[in-house]
Model the fold of this input.
Amino acid sequence: MTASTDQPIRLAAVILMVMACAACSGGDPSQDRPAPSISTGFDLPPDGELPGWSRVTEPEHYEADNLWEYINGQADFFIDYGFVRVDTAEYRNDQESSSVVLEVYRMGRPQEAFGIFAAERTRDDRPLEIGAAAYLGANVLGFWQGEQYVKLTSFDEGPSVEQALIDLAEEVSSRFPNPELELETLLLFPEKGRVEASERFIPKNFLGQPYLTGAYRVDYTFDGQGLQLFVVETGSPTEAQTHFKHLEDYYRGRDPANVSLDDTKDPAMLVVDGPSGVVIFQLEHRLGGAIGVQSLEAGRAAAVALAEKMGR
Amino acid sequence: MKNKGVSRRWFIGGAATGVVSAGLELSGYQRAEAAEQTAPAISYRVLGRTGLKIPLISYGVMNSDNPDMLRRAFDLGLNHLDTAHGYLRGNSERVIGEVVEQRGNRDKVYIATKMYLARDRERGVFTSEASAREPAPTEENLFQLLETSLERLRTDYIDILYLHSCYSPAMATYEPLMAALVKAKEQGKARFIGVSTHRDEANVIRATVDAGVYDVVLTSYNYLQDHKDAIGEAIAYAAGKGVGVVAMKTQGGKRLNQKEGVEINHQAALKWVFANPHVCTAIPGMTTFDQMDSNFSVMADLDLSEAEERELKLASLLPGTYFCQSCRECVPTCPERVEIPSLMRAYMYAEAYGNTIQAEETIGSLPEDRGLQVCAGCTSCQARCRRDLPISDRVREMAGARWTLA
Done:
């Protein structure tokens, strides 16, 4: 294991294939979610199977029906992210005498596993290369791989506990297929100004709009000012155009004096001025843009850079 | 003022046709546009002895996806945000802290958060030791969590500090944590303290009130709960003692929407909660602007219409959750071996589809010694459903219904 500092995200081959197929058809794989028909879980390694670790509790599993019993008010959020099932058990390190709770969340799709992983990642975490991407906090390590979001939590802290978490995470990761996957949409985001490990996938209700599903968002900093760039996948250019028009109508309805459409450029830019400004464009079957914009000039420039990269 | 302009239906319960379908709901665009046409009025209630004046609709902030939702909430006049220390590893608290700091409105916003400490889930008690996921229930650990939350929220006080998810009266009255919460209040790190519960709620509420130190209780409360009447009575008891009541899980949870493929009438579900005058506010989670506007618009008209009542009734009968599955495991639990699955089916015909003729025919087809007549003469129903279907309530309702006499 090595800590990653310059590799924003390592991701998966299966997804590339899926995305490639979707690109051929102009469709977005996030639009046609196959409903998980079975709810089989991860076989948590029995006592003695993980070198140096003893399983000290019987495995438990929770599904959408009773997830709230396990994670309380967070359950609805996980369900929005396509939660299918979580399997969990506690393991004890034979040498460190530290206990680790292993949780394997199975989500409906890989991007949802990434989405929930990214939602729980914090700025203070250290990125790691385990699975497709991993974070390490004071007493917790999380990674995603395929449809799985795996979380290992220890109440103890310290270097030896960190190493124990990493060792166990790598062992668990080796039991899943597809360790090297990549979410293609994230490759569309420019590198300049990009904040490391800030990528998000938002499966529904992006920008507070029920029709915007399958959004990717990344934080940026330019000259000390922050903003976020986004890409929303839709099923077709027509659909993207329709969404664009409805967004324009929405913003004009809310704050007409501060909304303008700059159609002198290609693509046309919808600009919403305000303390948290917005710049939006449509390019083929995608919407893109900048949000949380403090300076419209910076927001436009960032949106143009995104559009250029998307157009290539 | 009545707000007759709001006519969206998140759950389409066709009372006349018996249709239960999500396919009839408005499109995302229509919903977004409809929301723009409403200008929600705000109704306030006072949160018990805290004296805090809070809109009926508060904001359960679990989601950290969109800070603009928080900004919009503030624009609408919402002043009470509910989150928890553990949500998304603190990211929910962080988003609140950032937006409140940007807006500079800390003095106008009431922030509630919750501290979750190690417990034995089976026994419903706090444990003396930490688990890997949760710190031990000690004063030191509670204060450590509190300090972290204050830092994330970028504030030096919490308005309402809850003990998160108490399963039992024993947890709500666990001395070390009660003392720690009181200390946090004395130090000004928490203005008010409380307990949150979504298990054995009625008893937990009463214990919370009787403990004499808590100001607020946050309880799950919705029209789907079999024990909602008991919770309602406990809420009244709390109000009588000056303890403020906040309602959560007012929609009954995501499970209904997603697993059963239908959505419930959010507005009706909220109105049902607010029909209890002792509930100060509810904390629905909101992820779209039109959802937020829709919830807010409830405050303009709190009366449950007959149609809305019927929709709630239908939602409580959704297949897979509240319909009888005819597993027949209940039959041996009845000493008279009444044909309960058929009675439950008759109930469904009458209540879900309004088809009393088919209900009567079903009841009439049963042998006398296995039918509703047996139940009518029984005073202590022992029948049990493994899925907690309220058999005795339904049988009693049917036995007293005019249509069964036809």
Q: What stands out?
A: The helical segments of chain A are 13-25, 67-71, 75-80, 110-120, 159-173, 237-254, 296-311. The radius of gyration of chain A is 21 Å. Chain A has a mean pLDDT of 84.
